[in-house]
Amino acid sequence: MPDNSSSSTAATSAHTYPPSSATTSTPAEPSQYVAPSRSVARSMVSFLMAQWSLLLMAILILLAYYFPHIGMTGGTLRAEYTVSWACVGLIFLVAGLSLAPDQLLKGLPHWKAHFVANTFSLLFVPALMFGFATAGRTANLDFYIMAGMVITGCLPTGISNNVTCTINAGGSGELASIEVVLGAIIGTFLTPLIVEMFLTPRVGWEAAAPGSHAGVTEIYIRMAKQLSATLFAPLILGLAIQVVFPKATAWTRKNMHLGKQATIFTMLCVWHNFCNAFTSGAFTTASHATIIYLCFINISLYLLLTALIFAIVRLPSLTTSAAAWWRMSKKDTIALCFCGPGKGVALGAPLLAILYANVSLNHQAKMALALLIYNGEQIACTQLMVPLLRHWARDEIHKKNDDAALPRRSAVDSGVVEAGLTTVVEVPVGRGPTEAKNGGGFENWNVHSDAGSTR
C-alpha cells in the first residue's frame, strides 16, 4: 500500500510557488539608493542654491563695503542714473509685463480692502514710526536715522515681494496686484505731504524737513520728471504690450526669466544705497544703540501691524451681522497682511532721494539706512509668514475647489524654495506633487488664472 503522506509531501515539494512579496525583498537598484549623508548634503546645496537672491545681496553688500566708489552717487557707474533711473524703470516694466490687466480690473471694486491697505500703509505706519522715532530722538539717538524711520513709514507699499508672497501663501493674487498698483500711484503723490506733515519744525524736526524749506512744489517737479519716466511710463507700457501681444508676452515672461532679472535690478538698488552708506560713513558715525533700536522697532512694528490687519479684517471674536458684512475672506486677508505694512526699496529709495536731493550724502544715506533695514527684516518675516498663512487658508481653498489656486501655492509642502520665496509647484487637488516649476520674484505674478476671490 503506497504511502500517501510521502507522495503528498513529494508533490508539494515538487510544486514551485511564486515567492511572496511579503517575505522576499528585492534589492534596491543602485540608481534609487542615495546615502543618507549624500542626501543631506544634496538637500543643503539645493536649499542654498534656491536662496540665490539672498546670496547675491550678501555679495553685493560686500562689494559695496570694499568698493563703494563704484556704486555711490557720482561714482564710477553714475548709479544715480544707471540704477535710480534705468534699473527702477526696468523693474516697473517687468511689473507691467507680469500683472494681468483683467485681474487688476477684478480687484478694483474691492473698496474695503483698498481702504484697509492704504490706511495702514499711509497713516498707521507713519504715525507709529513717528512716535518711536521721536522717542529715539529724545533719547539722543542719531537724528537722521530716526528721521529715516519716519520717512520709511510714509513710503508706498512694496511691489514684487507683496504679490509673490500673497500668491505663494494661497492669497488673492489679483487683490495684491491692484493694491500694489494703487499704493504706488496714490503713495507716490501723498508721500511728500505726509512726510512734511510729520517732520515739521513745530515738533523739532526742522533739520529733516523735505524740500530744504522751499515747500513741496520743487519736490513734485522733480517727481514729475523722474517717476513719470521710471514708474508710470514703464508700467503702462508693460500693460499695453500684454494687451497687444499676449502670447509673445507670456513666452517672454517664461523663457526670458523676467522675474530673476527684476530681482537682480532690485538688488542693484540695494547695492547702490549701501555704497552711499559705506562711502558717507553712515554705519561708523551711528551708535550701536541707534542700530539696535532701529532693528528692534522695525521688526516689532512689522509684526504688530500684520497682526492688527489680520484682526481687523477677520474680526474673529464677533458674530454680529455687521461683522459678517465686514469680515473678508482668508485669501483677501492674506493679501492685506502683506500689502498693508510692506515697504519697498525699488520705489522707496528714489522717492527718498527726490525728497532730499539737496541734503548731504551722509545724511541722505542715514535716512535710507532705515528703509534698507526695514525691507530686509520685512523679507525675513514674510519667509516665516508664507507657510503659516498658507496652512491657515487651506480649508477655504479646498471648499471653493479652486484648482487654479491651490496647485500654484503648494510649494511649501514640497520644500522647494527659490530667491528667498517658495516656488510654484503643480500639485493637483487629490493627487501627489508633480514636477516643480521654478517661478521666483515677478515670474510668480502670472495671475491670469483665477487666483482667488476678492468678493
TrEMBL record:
Membrane-spanning segments: 47-67, 82-101, 113-135, 141-163, 175-195, 231-250, 262-279, 291-313, 334-356
Annotated keywords: Membrane, Transmembrane, Transmembrane helix
Amino-acid biosynthesis listed as a keyword: no
Protein name, entry field: Uncharacterized protein
Disordered: annotated segments: 1-30, 430-455
InterPro entries: Na+/solute_symporter_sf (IPR038770), Put_Na-Bile_cotransptr (IPR016833)
Domain of life of the native organism: Eukaryota
Organism: Apiotrichum porosum
One cellular-component annotation, GO: plasma membrane
